[in-house]
Design goal:
By secondary structure, the protein is mostly beta strands. It has one domain: 7 Propeller (Methylamine Dehydrogenase, Chain H), CATH 2.130.10.10. 9% of the residues lie in helices and 44% in strands. It contains 4 helices and 29 strands. The protein has a 5-stranded mixed beta sheet, with no helix packed on it. Strands 1-29-28-27 form a 4-stranded antiparallel beta sheet. A 4-stranded antiparallel beta sheet has the order 2-3-4-5, with no helix packed on it. β19 and β20 form a beta hairpin. It holds the Pfam family WD40. Keywords: Repeat, WD repeat.
Length: 386
């Protein structure tokens, strides 16, 4: 833990992206997956103006922007085997893939859902073979939709139909999907219905595929895998709660819940500062430690350590953002950190870096689609509990 504290304390801002002509909240970040001997070349960011922006990983120079108006692009993921292929789910009922080597604005592949589908979450499995996307609730239906992703960059502007769907396991918007880091057949989904479901998609049907259901008792905003061999799952909720389960204990008499915190803001002591929200989580493989990322409305970033005994503050990064931080991507290989926020800034933090310009941008006073959706979820959740 001391080493991680030192790593965090040594982080300084190395680069800032230049402000776009159309500023937007930066809602999701992913970096390209390099070969073992190389470093990541690209950063992709999902923005509140319904676009995906791509930057150079080292310089943060802007490279390309993809739009799907009038649809809204949700989330961003690079393929693991091809660092130029980037995916995003779209509210028009598709998942789109672009090849950032090409100058065209057209997706190289479109994965189409069913007519009523509005996709708000998705992920690509670790072997780049399967894509899964989650829908908003339409009438009484919510779906997990699956596609075969093979050969994605070899097909020019082709459309793929789904392999199939799961339709019985959630009854509200599916807000997050996360494939297992090393087992391509395992996927976890989270929803505003409070459920976190783990599936083995190698099984023949949805009932058999659903291996575990954990209840967060709140609307799920973030999910992930943790622990040695990644046999644990965790979630963050829209009302800043945290749940952590050990699914390896399913067939034993041991309890699967490792920790359940109703409101992390009340559980973590931050001296001379405060904790206003959670952004998400990260499992540190080398340290075998799960961390949460949170922050303040003025842009400070808090790193929180998780143990079965509770939560504790590891350290704070300040002086970077001037408004709420919405997204992060921590590269454990080179100990660098990318953060994006409501001040429309993308920041690259590196150990002992020196930034040439320290000018912070003012906060943007615009309403993002994610923020609006969270308000709806919180109010609907309260009405259901009454």
């Amino acid at each position: 833990m001391e080493k991680i504290e030192k790593q965090l304390a040594s982080l300084r801002i190395a680069k800032r992206s230049t402000l776009s002509e159309e500023p937007a909240y930066l809602l999701d970040i992913d970096v390209s997956k390099p070969a073992p001997s190389e470093s990541s070349r690209f950063v992709a960011v999902s923005c509140s103006n319904k676009s995906i922006r791509v930057y150079n990983r080292e310089t943060l120079n802007f490279l390309r922007e993809y739009s799907s108006r009038p649809g809204t692009l949700n989330g961003v993921r690079f393929a693991r085997a091809c660092d130029s292929a980037v995916f995003s789910a779209c509210s028009d009922g598709t998942v789109k893939c672009w090849d950032i080597r090409l100058a065209t604005q057209n997706a190289v592949q479109v994965f189409s859902g069913y007519p009523s589908n509005v996709f708000i979450s998705f992920d690509v499995n670790c072997s780049d073979l399967i894509i899964c996307a989650g829908t908003e609730k339409v009438e009484k239906d919510t779906f997990l939709v699956f596609w075969d992703a093979r050969g994605v960059t070899n097909c020019a502007s082709t459309t793929k139909e789904p392999l199939g769907v799961y339709s019985e396991s959630h009854n509200d918007d599916i807000t997050k999907i996360c494939f297992h880091p090393t087992s391509p057949n395992l996927v976890v989904s989270g929803s505003t219905d409070g459920l976190v479901n783990v599936f083995d998609i190698n099984k023949d049907n949805e009932d058999d595929a659903l291996t575990s259901t954990c209840n967060s008792d709140s609307s799920v905003s973030f999910i992930g895998w943790s622990g040695k061999d990644y046999k644990q799952v965790y979630c963050v909720t829209h009302d800043e709660g945290f749940c952590w389960w050990d699914i390896a204990q399913l067939d034993t008499e041991e309890p699967i819940t490792l920790l359940h915190v109703l409101d992390v803001r009340d559980a973590v002591c931050v001296e001379n500062d405060s904790l206003h929200y959670l952004v998400g989580g990260l499992y540190h493989e080398k340290a075998d430690k799960l961390f949460l990322i949170g922050g303040t409305s003025t842009g400070n970033i808090h790193l929180i350590s998780c143990s079965i005994d509770g939560l504790s503050l590891v350290g704070t990064l300040g002086g970077g953002h001037s408004a709420t931080v919405r997204s992060f991507c921590w590269n454990l290989t080179d100990e660098s950190l990318l953060t994006g926020g409501e001040d429309a800034q993308l920041l690259l933090w590196k150990p002992r870096a020196v930034e040439r310009s320290l000018a912070k941008k003012a906060s943007m006073k615009i309403a993002s689609s994610v923020q609006n959706r969270v308000r709806v979820h919180n109010s609907s959740l309260k009405s259901r509990k009454k």
